[in-house]
Design a protein that fits this description.
Layout (H helix, E strand, L loop, with lengths): L2 H8 L11 H14 L2 E4 L7 E4 L2 H9 L4 E2 L9 H12 L14 H6 L8 H24 L6 H6 L2 H10 L6 H12 L12 H22 L21 E2 L8
Antiparallel strand pairs: 1-2, 3-4
């Protein structure tokens, strides 16, 4: 396959419309797996990134924290937003979640809620999970022949399960859904907040408070270094190669 065709196939990663056209998306990924399983994608307004399309390669990347890290680009966003996010972090603002961290800090922060996800806790939660599942199945049946599955089920059920796991009252679920959509849908006009001074100030102060609080919750005896690998999507790796040497055995 020629380079132009490979380049065109790789652009699906940076084209939101490709994810609404499954035949096109899967055809492009199949071509990349066969002809260029490691592809450099250069598609403005995003900075260049590597797309990894073979499962074995992705798993190797996932396991090697010495060579592959999350920071400074754990998410695919425009170059302009990359610069904004970097400036916020350098100023002590911005939000750092688990996907922004590498070991050992990821391990420290993840340990804060680890007990909630152990098998015993999961078995205890099963009653609530089944209860929520029945609620949404009943809603679909009541809707008749069709419903908006994404809005009525997919965006609610997983989040409500997590909120139940964390012990939040059900009255807070709608607000948490709204906050989650605003956090992850900042580029979506339907979900993002207006860019007013009040909203910007509120976002920065909240993000700063969360970033300050998280290390304190579980890192009392651990070095406070932000490191850990990204749960890479099934066919894409957006990582930085480090100069740290590989581990030897």
């Amino acid at each position: 396959m020629s380079v132009p065709i490979i380049d065109e196939a790789a652009k699906v990663f940076a084209d939101p419309t490709a994810y609404t056209d499954e035949p096109r998306l899967h055809a492009a990924l199949s071509h990349l797996r066969a002809h260029a399983p490691v592809s450099l994608v250069d598609c403005p307004p995003y900075r260049p990134f590597w797309a990894i399309t073979k499962h074995a390669d992705i798993m190797e990347i996932e396991r090697d924290n010495n060579l592959w890290i999350n920071e400074p680009r754990p998410l695919l966003q425009t170059a302009q937003n990359d610069d904004i996010a970097r400036a916020q972090l350098e100023a002590g603002m911005g939000l750092r979640t688990l996907i922004h961290m590498d070991d050992p800090q990821h391990r420290v922060v993840r340990a804060i809620g680890a007990d909630w996800f152990r098998p015993k806790a999961m078995r205890a939660l099963k009653v609530r999970v089944d209860e929520l599942a029945k609620i949404y199945v009943d809603k679909m049946m009541a809707a008749g022949g069709e419903c908006d599955f994404v809005q009525e089920v997919a965006v609610n059920y997983p989040l409500y399960v997590i909120m139940s796991l964390l012990g939040l009252p059900e009255s807070d679920f709608p607000r948490m859904l709204k906050l989650t959509q605003e956090l992850f849908g900042g580029d979506d006009a339907e979900f993002k907040r207006g860019n007013t001074p009040k909203n910007s100030s509120r976002y920065c102060s909240t993000s700063s408070a969360i970033s300050t609080l998280l290390p304190r919750l579980g890192a009392s005896t651990q070095p406070r270094i932000w490191r850990r690998r990204l749960p890479t999507p099934a066919w894409m790796a957006n990582r930085c190669r480090t100069s740290r040497p590989r581990r030897t055995t």
